[in-house]
Design a protein that fits this description.
This protein is α+β, with helices and mostly antiparallel strands. It has seven helices and ten strands. The protein has a five-stranded antiparallel beta sheet with strand order 2-1-10-9-7, with no helix packed on it. It has a five-stranded mixed beta sheet with strand order 4-3-5-6-8, with no helix packed on it. Helix 2 packs across helix 3. The longest helix has 30 residues. The chain starts with a strand and ends with a helix.
């Protein structure tokens, strides 16, 4: 007894046929044992037989579009079937299995796992709202009002809901399931990573005198956004992950290059670098402050270098 399964592009079974014959044919014609409704499949496309070792084998019957393994681009005249990897005929995936093929153990009911995802999404969302309120409190210089906290929180929730809704809709269209909780967790994790890096950049800029960490924060922001988009795309469909990664990587590189060029031109025009304007307690300063003597010593070194450059210019250009 042989089972023939027609698979979707996401490898879900859309049709399953039992054939109790030693040799079967698959094609678009009505004289086949299994009919595949695909205009790119021949009237009689493949034959399934057993070889001398008793293995199931698929043989091409001279079709125009050929016989392929699922992800291979090499046309095959004959394929030994293992019951795991499908074959591709036309634009359809077909998997052939024997009645004794071992199946995976049954999965546990998803109620507990779903509850865990819900609690994780709610908990992480509360953490993000708390961080947002804390950042607002740190930046306040006047009397606090409820609207100062409520409006930014509603804006954050609305933006996150719209972002997650778009990705859930795409998942529903292309994968058949919205995967709403997964997309919520991905978005929340991305926002948390962005805020953690922002806090680290501000702290290191003040406490360690490392302004470069803050100046290049835009690169970290683009990296976080690219990681979020790739994870969303993976939930939309687990196929072609390499191609999706390449596309996201190219867009990431383009965005970073464009913003780097823009920032370099802005610096050339204004001569100002991006610095952190967040004030922190002096106790957080880890690098000791330089005294007046060290500062004046740097000024003297700079003056000496400028004098030497002027002297060099006078030697090379006497008229000046």
């Amino acid at each position: 007894m042989i089972w023939v399964e027609i698979l979707s592009r996401h490898r879900d079974v859309v049709g399953r046929f039992r054939v109790d014959r030693a040799e079967i044919t698959i094609g678009r014609g009505y004289d086949n044992d299994v009919i595949v409704d695909d205009p790119y499949v021949a009237a009689q496309h493949v034959r399934i037989v057993r070889d001398d070792a008793g293995r199931l084998v698929a043989e091409d019957l001279g079709s125009a579009n050929g016989l392929y393994l699922e992800k291979s681009r090499s046309r095959c005249a004959r394929v030994v079937l293992d019951g795991v990897q499908p074959i591709r005929i036309g634009q359809s995936l077909v998997r052939i299995r024997e009645s004794g093929h071992a199946v995976e153990p049954e999965r546990l009911a998803g109620s507990e796992r779903r509850s865990l995802l819900v609690w994780a999404a709610v908990g992480l969302g509360l953490v993000l709202l708390g961080i947002d309120a804390l950042l607002i409190w740190f930046g306040q210089t006047s009397e606090a009002h409820l609207s100062d906290y409520l409006l930014p929180s509603l804006t954050l929730v609305g933006t996150a809901a719209a972002w997650v809704g778009i990705w859930s809709l795409l998942s529903r269209l292309f994968a058949g399931r919205s995967m709403f909780l997964h997309h919520v967790l991905i978005a929340e994790a991305g926002m948390l990573a962005f805020w953690l890096y922002t806090a680290f950049a501000q702290f290191s800029s003040f406490a360690l005198t490392l302004p470069g960490v803050f100046s290049y924060q835009y690169i970290a922001s683009w990296l976080v956004l690219a990681a979020i988009c790739f994870l969303h795309l993976r939930e939309v469909g687990r196929t072609h992950l390499v191609a999706k990664g390449v596309v996201v990587g190219l867009l990431l590189g383009t965005a970073i290059a464009v913003q780097t060029l823009q920032r370099s031109e802005a610096f050339a025009n204004s001569g100002r670098q991006t610095i952190s304007h967040v004030l922190m307690p002096p106790s957080l300063r880890l690098v000791p402050l330089r005294d007046e003597g060290a500062f004046m010593g740097d000024i003297e070194q700079l003056k000496s270098k400028l004098d030497a450059d002027r002297a060099e210019v006078r030697k090379t250009s006497p008229d000046r």
